[in-house]
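Researcher: Good morning. I'm working through a list of sequences from a screen, and I'd like to move beyond sequence-only analysis. For each chain I'm collecting a predicted structure so we can compare shapes side by side. This is the next one on the list. No need for commentary yet; just the structure.
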Amino acid sequence: MPVSPRRVPVGTTITRLDSADVGQMVSLVARNRGTVAVYVGGRMVSTTTGFQLDPGETITLDLRPTDGGLYAITASGSADCHVLQVGAR
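Model: Good morning. Structure tokens for this chain:
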């Protein structure tokens, strides 16, 4: 089972955190390594609808291909999310 670590810069534009070619169930761990909150959710995530991930916090999810991916955005500034995906590359 492939393990894919990466750093994803997140700013005020919606950014996908998982691999776009997910064809099977994957486990995903995302950690906010920035100094501002990151809001995570579906492809239409916003700072009012997203799950707030404060600096240093981590979220762990299992995603199916039909879930549509995990996205993030910040209210201002930018933050690096460190993402570890286990499953499809």
